[in-house]
Amino acid sequence: MNKFKTLKDHVYDYIADQILVGNLRPEEKINENVICEELSISRTPVREALIQLASEGILDNVPRKGFVVKSLSEEEATDLYVIIGDLDGLAARLACPNLEEKDFKDMQFYIDSMTLTIESKNYEMYLTQQKIFHQVYIDKCGNNALIEELAKIKNKFLKKSYLDDPEGEISRTLTATNAEHQEILELFKEYKADEVSKYLAEIHWAPENAHFDLMSLNEK
């Protein structure tokens, strides 16, 4: 779904990316002046983007302090996983009859790319490839309201900048998750709409997996 991006949208993406790569940390105050200087824009689109991020639960608007990056509790993460699983499963079920061979090839490409990012420990790139993988079928669901709602909820998990992984736990977890991506693709290829919907809701987005999103926050 192509959409014209306003200045506010560009600022939104910029702040989201800064959170994703760990340049903005949980509880850190957003410096509006720095953003204005970095992007060479006025304060108005910056304020609009901050207000939107706060309305989506990514930032907190703290009285007498301003906008800060919001922390996510384990309970909140678990609750969000339940919602994402149901909505992602619905999107998959709606998209299934609309998927074509090109979509399957694209998803396989992203799965293979994620394997390479795990092997090279480029976990930030893994996040990017994972997002695009899911977006292939989400964009084919034919329901713009569902697409937008999923994007807003998933953005609450932006705050993931991976720690050093000396014990290999992150690598093992991502390898297992990528195996799930392969299973999702195989179900799509067989056009098993109900099965892929159930797999996403009950396995891929199982609430007990929510702790990993918290474990992977950069707390250095």
UniProtKB/TrEMBL annotation:
- Quote the Pfam families the UniProt record gives: FCD, GntR
Q: Which UniProt keywords apply?
A: DNA-binding, Transcription, Transcription regulation
Q: Where is the HTH gntR-type domain?
A: 5-72
Protein name, entry field = GntR family transcriptional regulator
SMART domains, alphabetized: HTH_GNTR
Q: Which GO terms describe its molecular function?
A: DNA binding; DNA-binding transcription factor activity
Q: Cross-referenced CDD domains, in alphabetical order?
A: WHTH_GntR (cd07377)
Organism of origin: Emergencia timonensis
Transcription regulation keyword on record: yes
Q: List, alphabetically, the InterPro entries matched.
A: GntR_C, TF_FadR/GntR_C, Tscrpt_reg_HTH_GntR, WH-like_DNA-bd_sf, WH_DNA-bd_sf
Its domain of life?
Bacteria
